[in-house]
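Lab notebook, page 48
Experiment: co-folding of the full assembly
Goal: obtain a model of how the components sit together before planning crosslinking
Operator: M.T.
Materials (sequences as entered):
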Amino acid sequence: MGVGSQRIAVEKPEVADTFAVRSLAPDILLFANLGAVQLNYTYGLEECLRAIAILEADALILHLNPLQECIQAKGDTNFKGLLDKINILCSKLPVPVIAKEVGNGISAKMAQQLIEAGVSAIDVAGAGGTSWAKVESERAENPLLQELGRTFTDWGIPTAECIADIRSHYPTVPLIASGGLRNGLEAAKAIALGADLVGLALPFLQAASQSPESLHETVQLLIAQITTVLFCTGNANLASLKHSHVLQKLA
Ligand SMILES: Cc1cc2nc3c(=O)[nH]c(=O)nc-3n(C[C@H](O)[C@H](O)[C@H](O)COP(=O)(O)O)c2cc1C
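Observation: model returned without errors.
Model output:
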């Protein structure tokens, strides 16, 4: 599980408790989260360590959201020199760093730069699902920003394309597929394409906003969909699905 940006918790310690979910999930992978661009706006090692400590996280996700910042009234658009700062953090933090987009995708070229900077894994968060350009366009009061957001609503590299492209260049880098995945069949397809993990944001948020029972049903259905794919393709587990060539049959 990955939490949303912990910037609010870093800046307002009184709400840090709302992120402290480790006691509820003692043995799962938990990812801390901060915007990489904050490294150009006063954040450094100390803030990252705090985000990790609040969650007792196994890794820190640094999200890259240049398009989203462009559609915000006072967006943080200074992305200059971030790779060097990420590089320093990767060498100093006690946990691995994961680089992640937020719905516009990561290309193989960008993956190369991030891997060279020292990140341990990549979450492509590709296009096809939640669109932050659209969200910011809806939130914006300024008509120019509203239209700018609408223009870029569908912008980005689709998730499947990111996974296939990065995997073909980097056969072993840990890769997370997210962005537009809506059920266990799509999750299984992403794994067959080469992802090691998958992430879903909107489907969990929608279910959680209804009721705890709805969230439980969503998780049960997701598991049933994935195990059905494994059963019907003759794969004992996800690791085996990853190395099988069943994609044509799943399509
Ligand atoms: C309400 C909401 C808040 C989000 N906040 C963050 C965030 O703080 N940090 C981050 O890395 N991604 C954030 N995301 C992006 C998701 O992690 C994901 O990359 C994106 O929504 C695409 O996945 P989806 O199509 O399944 O929603 C957020 C998504 C949603 C729906």
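Interpretation: The pocket of flavin mononucleotide is lined by residues 4-5, 33, 61, 63, 100, 102-103, 125, 129-130, 178-181, 200-202, 205 (CB under 6 Å).
Next step: discuss with group before ordering constructs.
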